[in-house]
Amino acid sequence: MAVPTPHIRAKEGDFAKTVLMPGDPLRAKYIAETYLENPVLVTDVRNMLGFTGTYKGKKVSVMGGGMGMPSIGIYSHELFNFYGVENIVRIGSAGSISEQCPLRSIVIAQAACTNSSWANQYEIPGTYAPIANYGLLSSAVEIAKRQGTPTVVGNVLSSDPFYCDLKDPHSAWIKMGVLCVEMEAAALYMEATRSRKNALAILTISDNIITGEELSSDERQTGFGKMMELALELA
Length: 235
Fold this sequence. Notes:
Layout: E1 18-21, H1 25-35, E2 37-43, E3 50-55, E4 58-63, H2 69-82, E5 87-96, E6 106-114, H3 134-147, E7 151-158, H4 171-175, E8 180-182, H5 185-194, E9 198-208, H6 217-222, H7 225-234
């Protein structure tokens, strides 16, 4: 497949080697306009906005990834395989299912469990464990320490259902020490591994699934500064 791809209008060379990927394209726009110097819109197919600019003199891209594993799977696959992107850092929201993760805390996803059948396409004769790239993970932990940003590192759940018909969908994951629930990291980690590239998910706790506490949609779009600054330094 040549560029542009079916879902990305950018030309060859438009993307940096590292792409920050929030789910919300408006959050991508906010990051580009707030943090990047001379940001340029490089793709807007289906309003999934992508920008490239510089941060502290280094070329960086930011692009929305959408909601759920099929969406981030499409965009990450095309970026990794057709645009020369080496690193994708998901920056998103998550719902806490652990006392370790109060509202607004930052989780670095060491691994991503999932209730999805995404891995079936690889015909693996067993259970695959999607994990982050260790280089990105260790760098993120060290940057967070230098910034004085507290983080929790551990296992997350990438869930297909947002509205789930199960009466008790989280107790087993809680029992196994899973920190929070989101919807994309497992597919991103598998796409990166299959493409021989690198991925990491950094998440801000936007709601607590157990207590019902939550941030507003506006706070989710613009209120994740610490996470954004951590990811930008990582890039």
